[in-house]
Design brief:
This protein has 371 residues and is of the alpha/beta class. It has 14 helices and eight strands. Helices cover 39% and strands 12% of the residues. α1 crosses α8 and α4 packs parallel to α5. The longest helix is centred in the N-terminal third of the chain and has 19 residues. Bound molecules: S-adenosylmethionine and iron/sulfur cluster. The site of iron/sulfur cluster has 9 residues, from loops. S-adenosylmethionine binds next to loops.
């Protein structure tokens, strides 16, 4: 069941019959419940800088986008966000940014140390392809996890859409292996519907998630940004029309479900990009197809529009408190509950927000998280 062959994966990726898809999502939801439980972990996202030295062909933060005003948060502002994460009952903060050389290794390390000393939060970093000594320093400072999507396992497509910073540097898949060696919980992931992305490469993506034994796997739709070569059509990777993966929500739900079945105990978010292409139900449908994590935004509202990875991003105007309440409401409407602990891989929470123990026969290997 877990090690699905490439042909099986391809069959599901091309499936469109509603009854078959309901069967797939139902199966993934059962695996999710048995292996990671009903808790939905809340990772508070702090977008600490929109500066970026890279030229990724898909991303609005790319250096050449001179229309985008840039910001870098002050240390005290980041501390305030971390304090707010604790007040809102989150277990983790994620510090994310463009690949910004202005975020020096020592500065980040000091912030990580402060958060680990002053709060009970797990710290996830998502700061791009950084040097080995920097990654090691941050790990020593107490960073628990690192997110670095490999975007696509198709090496030719990746090269075309993700120009190297300097030739011969490690690719993202090699960096993910290295992050695991350094003791991080490592998070990879892909965009779905990138121009030039084939169904076969998506099946390979799922095999790559398994081969890397990733702790977290982020899967979201590719969303065209007109200020980028890929979004404007200036770059058009060649592919037969019948092979091109569509960038729609159904494709993303299928990828989430197949990934849950292939990697049963990974943490899988229902992403903001999914909520952007379906504002009403996107997050909930991702959670019903196998996801078990959401990432409420903690970035001060004044900065959010300047972190424009793609246009019309969801949750731009809401305050951190609004995001928290909205997401908790969505989680409860599914009969699930918001996790209270750090929610690392391998922990299953069975005590809900009211203190009730919700362990039952459906989840035989539950490990109780004490309040
Ligand atoms: N700079 C870091 C990095 O590249 O890993 C972290 C920030 S980057 C904005 C985070 C993720 O945004 C990328 O890994 C990519 O998957 C996603 N992203 C960028 N452009 C996107 C687009 N046009 N549509 C959907 N997701 C996008
Ligand atoms: Fe920079 Fe990350 Fe965007 Fe690439 S994906 S341009 S590294 S922020």
């Amino acid at each position: 069941m877990n090690a699905q062959s490439k042909d099986e994966l391809l069959g599901w990726l091309r499936e469109s019959r509603p009854a078959r898809l309901r069967e797939l999502y139902g199966r993934a939801d059962r695996v999710r419940r048995e292996r990671v439980g009903d808790a939905v972990h809340l990772r508070g996202l702090i977008e600490i800088s929109s500066h970026c030295v890279r030229q990724c062909m898909y991303c609005g933060l790319r250096k050449a986008n001179d229309k985008l005003p840039r910001y870098r948060m002050a240390r005290e502002e980041i501390f305030d966000c971390a304090r707010q994460a604790e007040r809102l009952g989150y277990g983790t903060v994620v510090m994310q940014a463009g690949e910004d050389d202005g975020l020096t290794a020592d500065w980040i390390a000091e912030i990580v140390r402060w958060i680990k000393r002053e709060t009970r939060l797990a710290v996830t970093l998502s700061l791009g392809e950084r040097q080995d000594d920097e990654l090691w320093l941050w790990r020593l400072a107490g960073a628990d996890r690192y997110l670095l999507r490999f975007e696509t396992s198709d090496a030719n497509l990746f090269r075309a859409i993700h120009p190297e910073r300097m030739s011969g540097g490690p690719d993202r898949i090699a960096l993910l292996r290295r992050l695991k060696e350094l003791g991080y919980q490592a998070g990879g992931g892909v965009m779905v519907g990138i121009p030039g992305q084939s169904f076969e490469s998506l099946a390979n993506d799922i095999h790559t998630f398994r081969a890397l034994d990733l702790d977290m796997i982020g899967i979201g739709p590719y969303i065209a940004h007109a200020a980028t070569p890929l979004g404007s059509g200036a770059l058009r990777p060649a592919i037969a029309a019948s092979e091109q993966v569509p960038s729609n929500e159904e494709m993303v739900y299928k990828m989430i479900a197949l990934t849950r079945i292939a990697c049963p105990d990974a943490n899988i978010p229902s992403t903001t990009a999914l909520a952007t292409i379906n504002r009403v139900d996107g997050r909930k449908l991702g959670l019903k197809a196998g996801a078990n994590v959401v990432m409420p935004n903690l970035t001060p509202t004044k900065y959010r529009r300047m972190y424009e990875i793609y246009p019309a991003k969801a949750c731009i105007d809401e305050s951190a408190v609004d995001c928290s309440e909205c997401l908790r409401g969505q989680i409860h409407s599914l009969g699930r509950f918001a996790g209270r602990g750090p929610g690392g891989r391998g922990t299953i929470e069975t005590v809900n927000e009211t203190g009730a123990n919700v362990a039952d026969d459906a989840a035989p290997q539950l490990v109780q998280l004490r309040a």
